[in-house]
Design brief:
elongated; 2 domains; single chain; five-stranded mixed β-sheet; 2 helices; four-stranded antiparallel β-sheet; Immunoglobulin-like; 10% helix; mainly beta
């Protein structure tokens, strides 16, 4: 019996050794591209990246994209074509080397931007990865994150206001990579719809447009306050050209 058990342990050890011996280093680079903009990197807190085996849910690696937003001219050209290279050496990325003994269907999840959690959300992609044949050449494994990072600056949440007839609503709106928005800019404020959807005590009250303030990426409007109550203000930015949308919200109490 003892010999039998010894043989089993020996066989198991040999199997593990054989698997490890045949594992090949496989390089993977993951980049996250803001929709209609640039790479999401350190300036926006990066994107949290997790690689899993899609069949077993085993976590293979995790980390955060780091680096710059990339070369604007390279990324925002008008006629580069679908095979044009988008990244350069400065472009934010998460890089890892996996030891793979067999082909694996790998799922990559990216969540962020981590410096704007009110705007953060998750994207997932999956691909087969062959040992020794990774995704590190060219741009690597590129995921596109839709949305705008909308940040309500005023009014602050849950503030109580007495005797007011209007409340100033002000927001900061940038691309998910942090790229600025202004009239006639590369990201043109005149082409985006920024509006506030207002409810009072749970009932719809108004939908008002916000206009560019003259400060880069900032939009504002004056909200009439006709009766007391608890106001919920949801502000969204929307690009009619491609459906890109982001939002934030706040509340205030009119007494």
């Amino acid at each position: 019996m003892r010999n039998h058990r010894s043989n089993l342990w020996l066989a198991a050890g040999l199997a593990v050794f054989a698997s490890a011996a045949h594992a090949e280093p496989t390089d993977i680079i993951v980049r996250v591209l803001s929709k209609d903009a640039k790479f999401i990197g350190t300036s926006m807190g990066g994107m949290r990246v997790t690689l899993r085996d899609a069949h077993t849910d085993e976590v293979l690696a995790s980390g955060t994209t780091q680096g710059g937003t990339g070369d604007t001219k390279r990324l925002m050209h008008q006629n580069g074509g679908r095979r044009a290279s988008l990244s350069d050496a400065s472009s934010a990325k998460f890089a890892v080397t996996l030891d793979l003994a067999e082909p694996r269907l790998i799922e990559v999840e990216a969540y962020g931007p981590l410096a704007q959690l009110q705007a953060a959300h998750r994207i997932v992609s999956s691909q087969w990865v062959i040992p020794g044949r990774g995704h590190a050449d060219g741009d690597g494994w590129v995921l596109e994150l839709p949305g705008f990072a909308v940040d309500v600056l005023s009014p602050p949440a849950h503030i109580k206001l007495k005797g007011v007839t209007t409340v100033d609503v002000r927001v900061n709106v940038v691309m998910m990579c942090g790229c600025p928005i202004e009239p006639a800019g590369l990201w043109n404020a005149d082409k985006y719809e920024v509006q506030a959807i207002v409810r009072r005590d749970g009932s719809p009250v108004a939908r008002i447009p916000l206009h560019f303030t003259g400060e880069i990426s900032q939009f504002a409007a004056s909200l009439p306050v006709e009766v007391p109550g608890t106001y919920d203000v949801l502000v969204y930015a929307h690009d009619p050209a491609n459906g890109n949308t982001g939002l934030d919200r706040t509340t205030f109490i009119a007494e």
